[in-house]
Amino acid sequence: HENIDLLKFDIEGFEWGLFEQDFYGSTVRPMQLSFELHTQSSNPRYVPRVPVAGRGFASVNTLFSKLYGFGYRVVSKELNRGDQACAEFVLLNVGKLSSLPSTGR
After folding, report:
1. Counting Cβ atoms within 10 Å, is residue 6 exposed (0-12), middle (13-18) or buried (19+)?
2. Sign of torsion, CA 61 67 71 75?
3. 97 — pLDDT class (breaks 50, 70, 90)
4. What is the pTM of this model?
5. N or C, where is the chain less crowded by C-beta within 10 Å?
6. Which are the contacts of 63, defined by CB distance < 8 A and separation ≥ 6?
7. For the range 71-75, what are the long-range contacts, defined as Cβ-Cβ under 8 Å and sequence gap of 24 or more?
8. Alpha helix locations (H) across the chain?
9. How far apart are CA 40 and CA 37, in angstroms?
10. CA angle, 25 as apex, 22 and 28 as ends, to 5°?
11. What is the pLDDT of residue 105?
């Protein structure tokens, strides 16, 4: 696809690999991203240890810095009530806003 309006995923820690192995190298940038981010302190009953190993504060900062560089801005953040080491985010690619059709207003 050349245009994606919304990319939504909740893949229990495997989002790190998705970003690093697929998203960063892609030229297709969705208008919106919606995802749950899991960190190394996530509850191991729900999140496998391997994909979140070493994914703490510095990794989160690096991720959001890269997303910022791609034009994304956080428009919503909601902590997971059952696991404070996870949060759901919605990001909007503000760089794509100028390419939206005008409503004529």
Report:
1. exposed
2. negative
3. confident
4. 0.89
5. C
6. 16, 19, 37
7. 71/29, 71/95, 71/96, 72/33
8. 15-17, 49-52, 57-69
9. 10
10. 85
11. 60
